[in-house]
Write a structure and sequence with these properties.
Strand content: 35-45%
Mean pLDDT: 94
Low-confidence stretches: none
Largest sheet: 5 strands, antiparallel
Number of helices: 4
Number of domains: 1
Number of strands: 9
Distance between the termini: 37 Å
Structural class: alpha+beta
CATH topology: Cyclic Phosphodiesterase, Chain: A
Order of helices and strands: EHEEHEEHEHEEE
CATH superfamily: Cyclic phosphodiesterase
CATH architecture: Alpha-Beta Complex
Radius of gyration: 17 Å
Length: about 180
């Protein structure tokens, strides 16, 4: 099965992100936008494995208190002809530390995790082509920062069901305050 660890979002936050994606869609010629239920912040992509117990053990070893995240700013990854459109986060030491710990634990258990630096973002759309003259910076300036508290890390399974990408949570690591 195809697995990844992520911060899941509340229904309220998913609705807000979906509204932003829909507003953005009005300014595009084409693109595939993230489904409301699929919004998340990927922490570590694991890929194909049946070794779920080792992934759970890596998560269970995480010692991290709940922390706040602030999502703001939009940007793109990609080519001139189409892009991935994303929303970023303010720099966050707790998030970076949690990701570093999770990735180290996964590698110690033999998983091959990407070497590139962690750039926290959530994907709003893929293969997006904006209408001529659209200014993403001006659009982004109208979007208020979104604040949330991270209380858990979720392990998701990714499946394509009837042509639709579906994420199923299969395990959660609750974050506790340190005593």
């Amino acid at each position: 099965m195809r697995l990844f660890m992520a911060v899941d979002f509340s229904d309220e936050m998913k609705s807000g992100l979906s509204d932003i994606a829909q507003r953005l869609r009005f300014h595009t010629r084409k693109g595939s936008f993230t489904l409301r239920d699929n919004f998340h912040l990927t922490l570590a992509f694991i890929g194909e494995t049946e070794d779920v117990p080792s992934v759970k053990a890596a998560m269970d070893g995480l010692s991290c208190a709940p922390f706040a995240l602030v999502f703001k700013g939009l940007g793109t990854f990609g080519r001139a002809d189409s892009s991935i459109v994303w929303m970023g986060t303010e720099p966050n030491r707790e998030l970076s530390s949690a990701v570093s710990s999770l990735v180290s634990a996964l590698r110690a258990k033999g998983f091959r995790i990407e070497e590139r630096d962690f750039q926290p973002h959530l994907t709003l759309g893929r293969e997006v082509v904006f209408e001529k003259g659209f200014d993403l910076r001006s659009f982004a300036a109208e979007i208020q920062p979104i604040k949330m508290k991270v209380n858990k890390i979720t392990l998701f399974r990714s499946d394509r069901i009837n042509g639709r990408l579906t994420y199923t949570d299969i395990y959660e690591k609750i974050l506790f305050e340190h005593l």
